Amino acid sequence: MSKKRVLSGIQPTHDSFHLGNYLGALKQWVALQDDNDAYYCVVDLHALTVETDPKLLQKRTLLSAAQLIAIGIDPGKSTLFVQSQVPAHNQLAWVFECITGFGEASRMTQFKDKSQKGGAERTNVGLFTYPILQAADILLYQPDFVPVGEDQRQHIELTRDIAERFNKKFGKVFNIPQAQIIKSLAKISDLQEPTAKMSKSATSMAGVIEILDTPEAILKKFKSSVTDDDKEIRFDEKLKPGISNLLSIHSALSGKSVKEVESEFSGKGYGDFKSVVAEIVIETLKPIARRTNELMSDKDGLIKILQDGSERANQVASSTLKAAYNAVGII
Ligand code: TYM
C-alpha cells in the first residue's frame, strides 16, 4: 500500500514555539512521520506579514528548524524545508489569488482578528492574501492530511474550496486534503486567560509556556495559572476552563486519560496539581531545549539539512506547479 502524504507548516515569528504549537500540531507531526510521506515547512514568507528585523527572522528560521528536529522531526524520514527556498509556493499562490473571491478572503477570521488588532495603518496586503499562500503551500504537495490546531480549520476549508474550484474549472490537478485536528488538543489555552488560545502574539507571556523557557519560568507560570474558586479537579470546559486546560496538558504528556488524572487528584488541592503538571511539562521540554541549543551551535549542519529538504520539496512542488500552469494555459 502506498504511503499517505502529510504536509504542515509553522511560522518562525518568535524565538520559541509554545506548548499550544507543540500539543496541537508538532507532536502529531512527529507521530505521523513514521507511516506517512511527510513534508514539514518553516513558513518564513508568512512571517513577513509581521514586521521583523531581518537578522532576527534569519535567526528564528534556523531556531524553528532546530526546534522541530529537537522535538523529533527526523530529516531522514520527513522532508523538512524552508518555504522561501521553494519558489513554486509564490508562483502557485498567484494563480490561486486569481480564482479566490475578495469576499471569500475577507471572511477569514484570522485576517479579521489580526487586522482589527493592528488597525488599517498596520494591515498589509500580505496579511489579506496569507491564507491563499497557505493553500499553495499545501496543494503543491498533494497531501491527504494536514495536521493543525483548531485555529487553522478555516484556512484548510478555504484550501479545499480553492482546490475544488481549480479542478472544476481547469481539470483535475489537485488532491483535496483533509485537516487533521485532534479535538482534545486543538486549542490549548493561555494559562492566564483560559478562555483564549495560547498564542505567540499574546499581550503578556505570563500565560504562554514557551518550549525554550527555563524550568523556573515554567513552574512559575503554572503556579500562577488562573483557575476557579471551586476546589474540585474535574474536566468541565465551560465552568472550569483553567482546570480543564491543565487536565488536557497533563493527559497529553503523561499518556493517562483525563478520567485517570481526575481520580488520581481527587481530594487534592489545586496547588499540588499545578506543580505536578509543571513538572511533567518541564521534563518533556528540558531535553528539547538542550537539543535545540546543540543544533544551533552547528548552523552549517542545520543549513545543510534544510538545503537537502528544499531540494526534495522542489522536485514535488515544481511538478505540481507545471501541471497547474499547463491547466490554466501558461505556456
Ligand atoms: P502557526 O505558526 O500560528 O502555528 C503552528 C501550529 O500550531 C497550532 N497552534 C495551536 N494548537 C493548539 N492550541 C494552540 N493554542 C495553538 N496555537 C497554535 C496551529 O494551529 C498550527 O497548526 N497559518 C499557519 C502556518 C501555515 C501552515 C501552512 C499550516 C502556513 N502554511 C500550511 C499548515 C499548512 C500558522 O500560522 O500556524
UniProtKB/TrEMBL annotation:
It catalyses: tRNA(Trp) + L-tryptophan + ATP = L-tryptophyl-tRNA(Trp) + AMP + diphosphate + H(+). It is found in: Mitochondrion. Its main location: mitochondrion. The keyword Cell cycle does not apply. Keywords: Aminoacyl-tRNA synthetase, ATP-binding, Ligase, Nucleotide-binding, Protein biosynthesis. Pfam families: tRNA-synt_1b. It is an enzyme of class 6 (ligase). The keyword Calcium does not apply. GO terms for biological process: tryptophanyl-tRNA aminoacylation. One of its GO terms (molecular function) is tryptophan-tRNA ligase activity. InterPro entries: aa-tRNA-synth_Ic, Rossmann-like_a/b/a_fold, Trp-tRNA-ligase, Trp-tRNA-ligase_bac-type, Trp-tRNA_synthetase. One of its GO terms (cellular component) is mitochondrion. Its EC number is 6.1.1.2. Belongs to the class-I aminoacyl-tRNA synthetase family. NCBIfam families: trpS. This is tryptophan--tRNA ligase. It comes from freshwater metagenome.
